Amino acid sequence: MPDRTITWLRAADTAAAFLLIVSIWILLSGGMRTTIAGVRISATSPERLAFAAAGVLAVRHACRPRPSLLAWLRALVPRTIPAVWRAVTPIWAASRFGVIAIGFIAVLLIGNPEMRGAPRISSGALANLPARWDAFWYLDIAVNGYRWVDNPLEMQNVAFFPAFPWTMRAGGLLLGAYSPGIRPPDAHRRMMWGGWLVALVTFWAALVCVYRWAETRAGPHAATTTVTLLAAYPFAVFFSAPYSEPLYLLSVAAACLHVERGAWGRGAAWGFLAALVRPTGVLLIVPLAWIALERQRWRPPPVRAAMAMGLALAAPAAALLLHSLTIYQLTGRLFAWSDVQAAWGRNYQLTTWLGTDLARMAEHGVLEYVEASPVVVLNGGAAFMALLLLWTVARRAGVAYALFVIVNLAPAIASGGLMSVGRFTSTLFPLFFALATLVPERHVTTVIVAFSLLQGLLATLFFTWRPPF
Description:
Radius of gyration: 24 Å
Mean pLDDT: 83
Largest sheet: 2 strands, antiparallel
Oligomer: single chain
Number of helices: 19
Strand content: under 5%
Shape: globular
Low-confidence stretches: none
Number of strands: 2
């Protein structure tokens, strides 16, 4: 290829990268308005620069598709970077930023007709993109801490566990939310984007953990397929938002991986964190105990090893107790975080919701039920997939991981029926390993494409304030 062509291609790629970087800077800082030599300069619209960057890249690749920008970026990656990072990063980037792009386009083209009064952190569509649904509860905890009104039937932030709001604060600190002169709503916007940044980084780390876990069982090819299926899964849309799902996935996968290796201290630390991310984290004790006993071949370990194992197994319970005591000081209720779930319609009346749904189907027919409750059907499909894969999980990943799936799903289904079941299944990494080893290789691409299309649909719902729960 002539040198002039290479120079032109690199100039176009550099210009696109520059426009994208400036758009991100404007998004995080609010931009600038100034006057230089009598000329007024204003840079306050990240959307325009992002579209300009996309336009430059589109024209450049239409004229010269090869070598692509991706090929040049790969050439810049040092060979010393671990293979797992090289395998995981393209999957992570394509899936997460693809979902964000779909959400942004959906907001511009469809808008939010059902939520015109929805809370905002910015007037710009792109800057406001992470501000959806439960992200505001996490932001409230990060900014104001826990608050309580003595009415468990009223939605309150004590329903949410503290680990993700803590990381949101750390992300906000990195983005200058606590800088002198920064006040709401600018501080809140930076805090929200800090939570989004943390969610993206922790999801990348979670994929690395899941890859390593799967690789020890079936090799790198199965590991790559596992993380690809996980990232493409329809309900993986929550990994592209300031939600606790990425941190929970990271903590449970890391805890299992370290306990398998006999790294009891690290396993304890990750198990402790898992129980501070969401309440079902405490039930990690069940699969971790099974893993530990299998590692000892069901024989009593030496005293020192037994103490280390006990520490790893007790850590989730200790975390839940610590959080419950903290909430008790505020509310006078040891389990206020559980009591207030009733405000979201969660109560342990399995027969009630099951009987209601069956009665509706019997009265109106399955087709009409699907038309009236499509999101419930999608969640039901996720639960059905988990049920079908449970035996494969036990056979190919181990009984401990079948128990892991059960203890995560059973409380959610028992308390809320199919509500949010798809979201909960997104963190159950053994399901995707089972799927990767079960689906014939010639059909894997078909499954990934189908998953991705459904994830795009759920991203459209999520970012336009239509509940995909």
